[in-house]
Write a structure and sequence with these properties.
Layout (H helix, E strand, L loop, with lengths): L9 H5 L7 E9 L5 E12 L9 E5 L8 H4 L4 E2 L4 E2 L4 E5 L30 H14 L5 E7 L1 H9 L7 E7 L7 H15 L16 H15 L2 H7 L12 H13 L5 H13 L11 E7 L7 H13 L4 E6 L7 H4 L3 H11 L6
Parallel strand pairs: 3-6, 3-7, 4-5, 7-8, 8-9, 9-10
Antiparallel strand pairs: 1-2, 2-6
Helix pairs in contact: 3-4, 5-6, 5-9, 6-8
């Protein structure tokens, strides 16, 4: 079995070749936690052409470490002629509230000019969607053809369908869930503790020029262990030793990915976003007026298939048209990022209304 080399090239895969972001203020936000952000700015990118009656818009929601550049991190799914075809759909990618790639987050400057850091309020997945909805409205779009996303992005896509029901025709949610279980929360807490036990953490008010990178790197290593599968690691590395070094190849790989991650991500954002998804919970989809496609992967141990099956059951119980497809690929959770063929075929048919042909 061939292991896709892109599985082990996360940082390279996520790096945009050029900055095509736009920025828009969406005003004052009263967070669900009670905190307030006086002026939220959203970083976003668009591809394709909005139809004259603005009925071909698709919003892409990213995973925890993603950004607005959906045509990059989801390059096998989004683009000309691909499952989410930018020659047919007007595709919108945003950086989530609390992130660190242009949207207001802990590293953004407050009214005093200093980064919010530990002063940044607790945000929820609902807050993230509220910000996205304001952006979409500002772009002159009243109804979306679809929202789509995986992992954390799947939670945002799910939440879109429950806020202003009828605003989203279809939702494709891949490798995600209605609520984290204890193991998922445990992985995230281990990552948070790695950051917060770094001597440079300073309660979240660290020097931006000297952040807790050692802890953030370890947090990302923990993440990689949960994103991939046993088969992927064994086929790629086995027990091979790194040439010229007294170190296993897998050790070298994890250290490299952890260190590279610190150049593009903020430690406070990891804390804020991971807590938001740990606290997210939907026990019912009653009230939704959307149609759903849920996809999952047999080798995904971080977001196992039974969680997508549960989402499908919630949708059906709410009277919504829904389909769940399980895909047999050996790549672990990251399969949702790299599978443009199988899930891509189902997604294309779902978006275009040709499900029976997939």
């Amino acid at each position: 079995m061939r292991i896709d080399p892109a599985l082990f090239q996360e940082n390279e895969r996520l790096a945009p070749s050029r900055d095509t972001r736009e920025f828009r203020s969406v005003g004052r936000l009263e967070c669900e936690s009670g905190g307030v952000l006086e002026d939220v700015v959203v970083a976003y990118e668009t591809w394709g052409t909005l139809s004259p009656n603005a009925d071909n818009a698709v919003v892409i929601c990213h995973a925890l470490s993603g950004d607005s550049h959906a045509i990059g991190w989801w390059d096998r799914v989004v683009g000309p002629g691909k499952a989410i075809d930018t020659e047919r759909w007007f595709v919108i990618g945003t950086n989530a509230l609390g992130g660190c790639q242009g949207t207001t987050g802990p590293s953004s400057g407050g009214s005093d000019g200093r980064p919010f850091a530990s002063r940044f309020p607790v945000v929820t997945v609902g807050d993230m969607v509220e910000v996205q909805q304001r952006l979409v409205a500002a772009l002159g779009i009243e109804q979306l053809q679809a929202v789509a996303g995986g992992s954390m992005g799947g939670m945002m896509a799910l939440e879109w369908t429950l806020r202003n029901p009828g605003r989203v025709r279809k939702a494709w949610i891949t490798a995600s869930c209605a609520a984290h279980n204890a193991l998922q929360i445990g992985f995230n807490e281990t990552a948070r503790q790695a950051v917060m036990r770094d001597p440079k953490w300073a309660g979240g008010d660290y020097d931006p020029a000297d952040p807790p990178n050692a802890g953030l790197a370890v947090a990302r290593m923990v993440g990689h262990l949960s994103y991939l599968s046993e088969v992927s690691f064994d086929r790629k590395f086995g027990r091979n030793i790194q040439e010229g070094r007294d170190q296993f190849q897998v050790e070298s790989y994890l250290n490299y990915q952890g260190d590279k991650f610190t150049h593009r991500f903020d430690a406070n954002s990891l804390i804020v976003l991971s807590r938001a998804i740990d606290r997210y919970e939907r026990t019912s989809l009653v009230g939704s007026a959307s149609e759903y496609l849920f996809t999952s992967f047999t080798s995904d141990t971080l977001y196992p298939s039974h969680q997508s099956r549960h989402l499908d059951r919630l949708a059906r119980d709410a009277g919504c048209p829904s389909t769940w497809r399980e895909i047999d690929l050996p790549f672990g959770h990251d399969a949702f990022l790299l599978d443009g063929d199988i899930q891509g075929a189902w997604a294309r048919a779902f978006l275009e209304g040709t499900d029976d042909e997939a």
